[in-house]
From TrEMBL:
It comes from Actinoalloteichus hymeniacidonis. Coiled coil: none annotated. The lineage of its organism: Bacteria, Bacillati, Actinomycetota, Actinomycetes, Pseudonocardiales. One of its GO terms (molecular function) is oxidoreductase activity, acting on paired donors, with incorporation or reduction of molecular oxygen. InterPro entries: Lucif-like_OxRdatse_MSMEG_4141, Luciferase-like_sf. This is F420-dependent oxidoreductase.
Amino acid sequence: MSVTLGRIGIWRAAAAVTDELAVELDRLGFATLSLGGSPTGDLRQVESILDKTERLTVATSIVNIWQVPAAEAAASYHRIAARHPDRFLLGIGIGHPEATSDYRRPYATIVDYLDELDAEGVPVEGRALAALGPKVLQLAADRTAGALPYLTTPEHTKQAREIVGPDKLLAVEHKVVVETDPQRARAIGRPPVAFPYLKLSNYINNLRRLGFTDEEIADDGNDRLIDALVAWGDADAIAARVTEHFDAGADHVSLQVLTAEGADPLPAFRTLADRLL
C-alpha cells in the first residue's frame, strides 16, 4: 500500500464538508482532503467522499485516540482501504488535555494505541500521527508513515523535518485568508486561532518553543503571531508562504481556508487552485 497526498490539499472540519464540496475540490485538482474536528470512528463520511470522487485522497486529521477505540479505527481503515486502495490515510492524534477529563500519560497512550493498530493489521504506511513536540515527532517517524503538524510555521516545519528524517511524510496544515486588506484579513484569521488554540497548552507550548512570548500569545494573539499562523493576501502572497513550507522540508501543505462568517468558501478554493495547482 502507498498513499500519495500530493503537494497541495485542503483541511476542513468534517462537519463542514459535504460530498458535493469534496467533488468540487476533486474537480479543481486538490490532491487531498483532510477531515478535521475528530471524525467519528465509523468513518462513513470518508467512504462516501471516496465513493463520489475520482482522484481525491482523504485523510483524517485526526481520529481522536480518546474517542475512538483502536479496534474500531482499524476496522474502518480496512473497510475503506479495501474499497479504495491507496486513497485513504488514517491520521490519529491524542487531542488536548483541556478537552478530555481522562487525559493521562499521553505519550504512553499513543504508544499503546499504535500497538493495538499493529495487532489489528493496520500498516505503518497507512497511518500518520499528529505531532508538534520533538518526542512525538520522533514517534511519528518510528511508528507511522509520518507526522501531521497543525497550527505551525515554516520554522517548525524545518525543525520537524530534521527530527523525522528525509524519508518520512511531513504534511503540515496552514490557515489562509484570501484577502489583501490587513485589518479585514486579521479580523477573519484571528478568531479561529484564538479559540480554541491559544487556550490549549500543547499549542501554547509549541508557540513558545518557536520563540513567541506569552505577551504575544495573550489577548487572542498579536499581529506578528497571527501573521505567522495565517497566510493572507492575494494568491501570490499565499503561494509564497506555501513555498516557505516546502523549502523547509514539507511534503504536503494542507490549506485551511478561512472566510468571513457565512461566506461561501468556493471562490477562495477556486482562486487558490488557479494559482497553486
